[in-house]
Amino acid sequence: MNLIKSTGTFSFFTIISRLLGYVRDILIAVFLGAGPLADAFFVAFRIPNTFRRLFSEGTFNAAFVPSYSSLLNKKKLSENFANNIFNLLILGLLLLVIIIEILMPLFVFLIAPGFEGDSQKIELAITLTRITFPFLLFISLASFFSAILNAHNKFAIASATPIILNILLIGVLVFGKILNDQLVYYLSYAVTISGILQFIFLYFFIKKYFSPKLKINIKIDQKIKTFFKKLLPSIFSSGVTQINILVGTIIASFQASAVSYLYYADRVYQINLAIAGIAIGTVILPQLSKYVQNNKKDKINLIQNKALELSLFLSIPATIALLIASEEIITSLFGYGSFDEGSVKNSAKALFYFGVGLPAFSLIKVFSAFFFARHNTKIPFYISLTSVLLNISISVIFFKEIGFLIIPIATTISSWFNALFLFIFLKKRNLFNFNLIFIDRFVRILIASALMGIFFNYLIYFFSSKLIYEEIFKSIYLVGAVILGLTFYILLAIFIKAFKISDIHLKY
């Protein structure tokens, strides 16, 4: 496996999807702003989207890929294992969707209790969530298909599939002016339809490796039991950042427009997280699982060090950029139409604090993969559980005093706690050791990132008059500043040997 090329392939399609996602969110900001319609839609969208992230962004892989990969040399066993999982998922997810649809008023109250005082907003949120919730069934099955492709080191199709969601939503938003208040309903239907289309799309690509067969008589052997024992802990631990954001949404619902502020801020840092954490964690897991099974210690140490190095190489400069230009980024991306200056400032403040936690969000994905490759989901689960409880405690205690900004602060603090303790347990169990190349590269990455920060700060100052709320073409200037800053960072990194071009050709 070529780590950088595989990560690059995964990242390319992910970036396309996220860029389309930004176009989608810009249009949502234009037509909905940060008012009651936006809050109701974001609650309805947050639930299926959280599950999409939980299942499709490495979480399902964590439980499935190590077990499935260990059976790949026994085709019949691997097919039976995969087919039994497929059928059990259908039964379980169907039951879950039906129950939630029936209990939707209670469900919405649990995820947005702050809406209770506004009968119109909560009724709208209930209706919209009823429309979007079936997305969970189809996106979970689509994620199962993606996990099969990933286990065979086929990352392109799986990473490209989420593009379908954004294309459909953008298609609806094009008619935003015509649809007016009906827009949120059409967007909600588009969410569910996109789940169906993603499922169908992936089905045609997995047939080469796996042919799903519907059956009622499912044999639950020890392998299946082990998988489901690992599934919930892996969902919790690998998706802890998304769980923290969901918890934040629940608490933020008590403050007007806060759900929207957090949503827009969350959208910005996710593109780097997708590359520096999710892509790397997803790509290394199949190969790392095989090395662990064959006890190839040198290979294990090499791929773990390189994965950590690549994650920090991508996340540290992104963090610096977010800290320097959070307001300029938000106003350039979303500062149009109904999204006023107050919304820009509040979303930018949230983005600043999320930015501090970005390296931790990425490290959690990478460190968790080190455990998952060894079939260990318990340690990441217990650490993540403690992290979520810490997040809730901080958020609840300080929400009245600080307001919605405590949400990104608490998420960041709890995430650094999570990443630190994952690392401590890796070292304690002798599952990870730094090599000299990583230590040398890490110092050089810090130097390159610091110098990039100085250069990027100058660029933002240079374009400052073009990055204000009133400027129509501010997004163009932001893109220009980002491209120049990124180019400077890469060239500098190559010059001071924080990154070597020869690394692109290395296989692990």
Description:
With 508 residues, this protein is mainly alpha-helical. It has one domain. Helix content is 80%, strand content 0%. The protein contains 19 helices and no strands. The N and C termini lie close together (5 Å). The mean pLDDT is 85.
Q: What's the story with the biggest beta sheet? A: none
Radius of gyration: 22 Å
Average pLDDT reading = 85
Low-confidence stretches: none
Distance linking N and C termini: 5 Å
Total number of helices: 19
Overall SS class: mainly alpha
How many E-type strands? 0
Oligomerization category of the chains in this entry: single chain
List keywords for this structure.
single chain; 508 residues; mainly alpha; 19 helices; globular
Set down the secondary structure blueprint.
Layout: H1 3-32, H2 36-69, H3 75-102, H4 104-111, H5 119-132, H6 135-151, H7 156-160, H8 163-173, H9 176-179, H10 183-206, H11 222-238, H12 240-252, H13 258-293, H14 297-334, H15 341-372, H16 378-402, H17 406-428, H18 436-462, H19 474-495
